[in-house]
Design brief:
It is built from five helices and three strands. By secondary structure, the protein is of the alpha+beta class. The protein has one domain (35-139): Zincin-like. A hairpin with an 8-residue loop joins strand 2 (86-89) and strand 3.
């Protein structure tokens, strides 16, 4: 009688390599070490997009948003003065409009978490306003404060 081998991860509970207990994360999800600076930055961007999406769903939903570490080294030909904190790409040929925030330059501009949240908010509002040809104050009255 031959038994078939099932890998440990296919079973209901599997043990660590030394057989002492079940595998689990080294740190809990609520401990500070679990979060990285890039993860916290992504969460701040998501929170601002949620806030703006609730206020202006028709403006925010058609746009794709992304976060990259650093901007590309070549500015677009139509940009006279490239902004190194964020960039807006207009929609073209079936590709939706995109807004990209650059994490490291934004983090280098700030001293604390509150200032980081304000810069993220201002950059998102400014790029959304740029996409639709509006003033940023129309989208968020607190812009720039």
């Amino acid at each position: 009688m031959r038994q078939s081998f099932t890998p440990p991860w296919m079973g209901k509970v599997y043990r660590n390599t030394h057989g002492r207990g079940t595998r689990r994360p080294m740190f809990g999800t609520r401990l500070p070490r679990y979060r990285t600076r890039s993860g916290m930055f992504d969460d701040m961007v998501a929170a601002q997009l949620k806030r703006l999406g609730q206020a202006w769903p028709e403006l925010v939903q058609p746009i794709q948003f992304a976060v990259e570490d650093v901007p590309a080294s070549d500015p677009s030909p139509w940009e006279d003065e490239p902004n190194m904190l964020s960039r807006a790409f207009p929609a073209s040929h079936g590709i939706p409009a995109r807004i990209v925030l650059y994490r490291l330059p934004i983090q280098m501009e700030t001293r604390d978490r509150t200032e980081l949240q304000f810069i993220i908010r201002d950059e998102l509002v400014a790029r959304i306003a740029e996409q639709y040809g509006r003033r940023p104050e129309e989208i968020d009255p607190d812009w720039g404060l």
